[in-house]
Write a structure and sequence with these properties.
The protein has 319 residues and is mainly alpha-helical. The chain has one domain: Orthogonal Bundle (Ribonucleotide Reductase, subunit A), CATH 1.10.620. Helix 1 runs parallel beside helix 10 and helix 8 packs antiparallel against helix 9. The N terminus is likely disordered.
């Protein structure tokens, strides 16, 4: 269902900020409807590897959402049309709600006693350096340009391309769907499954807006600008996706190969998702560059992993 919705947003040339805002009204949801502590017994009983994988992914997602809830405001204020401004105002609500969901869920199932703000800081300390760099350095730099000069349209289009199309479309949605699939197979965390479905639906709207904004940029003579911005952002996103700081299981060869296949599929899915969105925005001519930059970024991140841990990355088992 979510995959179908996302493709409709990406491929529909009639998608506009107005239509996305109306979808937001129809698809609104509340964290208060989710009894997050109900998942706690099943969460505490998860197998160690699955627990570690889910916990790490949810922490990274929480950190990203908290950062964006703080950084999105300049993009709302500087939007080039009133309709885009109205839509982005609804997205600001989404980002805050996602932050509350992820932080609230983790606090509930982990039995955390510190207040939400303190727990958010703990999550940030546990997140990978690559995630912190993407959201608290690179994206911050993009939105700060807009804040300093709201009339700088180039800065606005660059920031939206960075966040909505590359970070959300090629990273957040792929990670969310991977987590949702793991939760589905687990079959024991219904509250998390419902919350993830809601977040994925929201993120699909966000990506749809990003594709609209890129088309708008292309139609207004900014093809080179947004194309270059996609290429510039790819290494940051790939570094988060590969996650060289996280040690993968390296005991049995069959486990290593299975992990390698899982990661190869995830990385290819993310790259292909970005390629679809670039094409939908009218930038077919940068396909080859996107693929080349993506592969080079993967290789650097994998080499970083091997330097850190002194073992081949599981992806090498597929060679």
């Amino acid at each position: 269902m979510t995959a179908i919705l996302d493709e409709q947003l990406i491929d529909d040339r009639e998608t506009t900020p107005e239509s996305l805002y109306l979808r937001w009204e129809r698809q609104n949801w509340s964290t208060q409807d989710l009894t997050m502590a109900a998942d706690r017994p099943a969460w505490q009983a998860l197998r160690p590897f699955l627990y570690q994988e889910l916990k790490a992914a949810l922490v990274e997602l929480a950190v990203g959402e908290v950062a964006v809830a703080r950084l999105l405001t300049p993009l709302v204020y500087a939007a080039p049309t009133q309709a885009a401004q109205f839509y982005l105002s609804s997205q600001l609500v989404d980002e805050s709600r996602h932050s509350i969901f992820f932080l609230g869920y983790l606090r509930a199932v982990e039995g955390a006693i510190e207040p939400p703000h303190a727990y958010a800081l703990r999550c940030r300390a546990e997140a990978s350096a690559a995630t912190v760099e993407l959201f608290d350095a690179y994206l911050l730099e993009q939105t700060e340009r807009v804040r300093r000069d709201p009339d700088d349209r180039d800065a606005w289009y660059a920031a939206v391309t960075t966040y909505h199309v590359v970070a959300e479309g090629a990273l957040a949605l792929v990670v969310l769907r991977s987590v949702a699939e793991a939760v589905r197979r687990c079959g024991q965390l219904p509250v998390l499954a419902e919350g993830l479905r809601n977040v994925i639906r929201d993120e699909s709207r966000h990506v749809g807006f990003g594709v609209w904004a890129m088309r708008h940029a292309v139609d207004n003579g900014r093809r080179q600008l947004v194309g270059d911005q996609v290429l510039d952002t790819i290494p940051y996103v790939v570094h988060v996706l590969v996650g060289p700081e996280r040690r993968n299981p390296s005991a049995l060869p069959m486990v290593v190969r299975a992990r390698g296949r899982q990661l190869r599929d995830q990385w290819d899915t993310a790259r292909d998702a970005l390629l679809r969105r670039v094409r939908a925005a009218g930038l077919d001519d940068v396909d080859a560059q996107v693929t080349e930059v993506w592969r080079a970024a993967e290789e650097r991140a994998v080499a970083d992993y091997e330097n850190r841990h002194g073992v081949p990355h599981p992806i090498r088992s597929l060679n």
